[in-house]
Amino acid sequence: MNNKSTICTNHEPVSSMLSGDRGRVIIFSAPSGSGKSTIVNWLMQEHPELKLYFSISCTSRPPRGTEQDGVEYFFLSPEEFRQRIENGEFLEYEEVYEGRFYGTLKAQVERQLEAGQNVVFDVDVKGGINIKHFYGERALSLFIQPPSVEELRRRLEGRGTDTPEAIENRLAKAEYELSFAPQFDHVIVNDDLETAKQETLALVRSFLLA
Fold this sequence. Notes:
Largest sheet: 5 strands, mixed
Shape: globular
Number of helices: 7
Strand content: 15-25%
Distance between the termini: 43 Å
Low-confidence stretches: 9-19
Radius of gyration: 17 Å
Order of helices and strands: EEHEEEHEEHEHEHHEH
Mean pLDDT: 88
């Protein structure tokens, strides 16, 4: 696996060009097992008034089952994906292994923002930091943090889905990711899930109403 992740930052931040009627960007990052997905899904399902929508990504893999182009993903051939990378069209992209790409087109995010949608990103820490840089004051970056590495170990072991070796790899990665937490706008410590949900909701509401 290449597991090659790239954030495209060769353009100036666009915050100065954004008008008040446009949507905003909300970025979530966290080590695996921190409860990020639970918090994000709760926020989007229980608070439709916030007009939160995931960005629609591109992929070079074929559609699965009932997936439709432009709904779950935009489906591109590997050649077309590479050409769009060459053209600088992606806000971020990742080649998970040879020829299998995932990424977010700048133009698609702009369409969603123009429609008044508040676009949610669920990305790794470096991606989160760089997307925040690109969108500036129009973006809120939130880092969901476990109370400790020891608690994270307990959660990962409790899942029962990973081998001991995989858990050790995840913990090593988590320690690395935790070092980036101070670069986010806010850090939410998920010690108690309900408290973390309410703290996240308050921060997002405050940001969208500002």
